[in-house]
Amino acid sequence: MAILYRRIVFLLFVFLLSSLFSVSVSLSFSPADEYLVNCGSDVDSTVDNRRFVADASSASKLKFFSSEGSVALQGEDLAPNVPEIYRTARIFARQAKYEFNVRDKGTHMDEFSSEFGSRVREFLVWVDAGEVVIRFVPSKDSKLAFVNAIEVISAPKDLIADVATSVSDDGTEKLNGLAKQAMEVVYRINVGGRKVTPFNDTLWRTWVPDDEFLKTGDGSDKTYFTGRIKYRAGGASREVGPDNVYNTARVARRSSGSVPQVDMSWDFPVSAGYKYLVRMHFCDIASKSLGMLYFNVYINGNLAYQDFDISYSAGYVLASPYYIDFVVDPSSASSITLSVGPSNKTIVDEHVVDAMLNGVEIMKMNNSMGSLDGFVSEDMILSSCPNRRNLSIFIAMMAFMCIFMSFYIVAQRKKVGDDYGWTKLSMDVRGDNLKSGNQFAARKP
């Protein structure tokens, strides 16, 4: 009997282990292109089970960067919990570049990490060439550029849709061509939930709580879901948003039988002069049944989506994630305000949720100059900040030309002197003038 019991326990253990393995395999994302670089280090490092390859290792056959005179710097007296990739950096005193060969045509995610509060700059760029080139140019003020780590990853095909809804004071319209726009991630928010770390995201992203951005939310509650998130074709995939974003939400509930007029609003400071892609994530984890939740979506006070039927959008499946992309131009405004609230179709029932939101992403889109930081182009920056090596060569050439011209001028003067000559004037001179050394000369005719 004891032997039979041990066999049953062993078989259950094997079944559980195989189930966990199959789940982990199904949840994993394997990008066609993935470069993780530990800048300024001569040893590889592992962060969140991800291996960052050293760019300063003499034994490494992978040469990513091209910069003569760059300096590899290692930090000292850092806290023990500082990740390895932030303990080293590569410093550039002039233009430098990292080059990565890519196989996959499409959107790629570029991330640059620097130890200023572990700041990560994330960009989404369309790549149709065979390589990604990342340049670092020292600014005129600092005279230096540096980076701790770089990630270049081919993004899932469904990460950026090509069509979105443009929202303005004049109404809404469809906007095409988004997939090939360069974007910078400004905000990634887990509404109603806790911080989501890269370890819990298949694309290794960080999602922060929404509390500091919530502007109005009287009567709103945070809700949590312990069941299984039902990803499906046509909706949001796990790469679009992880479980830990969709299993939490902030919901608006009425305190009486009447439909409330207040809505939930979030305010996000942004830089003027750019358009922004606003992605709002929805997953009905609060309704008791289908067809009960209708609400309106507003952006900067403009109606972006009227009578949003989340059941219809999610294929009539509860706890099935869905997202909507909007493009907004805040013009001279310094922030983007998002709001959700009851619609005319909202059902008057004390058990019905009036509005909800699970997550928000805001991405800055490149302007007409192809820039994500000011109205300057790449050519303008590179021409105004020439490579110091080229500058040194230019200065040496100018010095050589100056020396050459000096010899040339001296030679020409000597030649003129030989052709014309000089002689003293024949004239009477007083003795006192001779003593004083005054003499006169005249050029021969």
UniProtKB/TrEMBL annotation:
The chain crosses the membrane at residues 391-411. Residues 120-364 form the Malectin-like domain. It is a single-pass type I membrane protein. The keyword Glycoprotein applies. Residues 1-26 form the signal peptide. It is found in: Membrane. One of its GO terms (molecular function) is protein serine/threonine kinase activity. Keywords: ATP-binding, Glycoprotein, Kinase, Membrane, Nucleotide-binding, Serine/threonine-protein kinase, Signal, Transferase, Transmembrane, Transmembrane helix. The keyword Signal applies. It comes from the Eukaryota. InterPro entries: ANXUR1/2-like (IPR045272), Malectin-like_Carb-bd_dom (IPR024788). This is Malectin-like domain-containing protein. One of its GO terms (cellular component) is membrane.
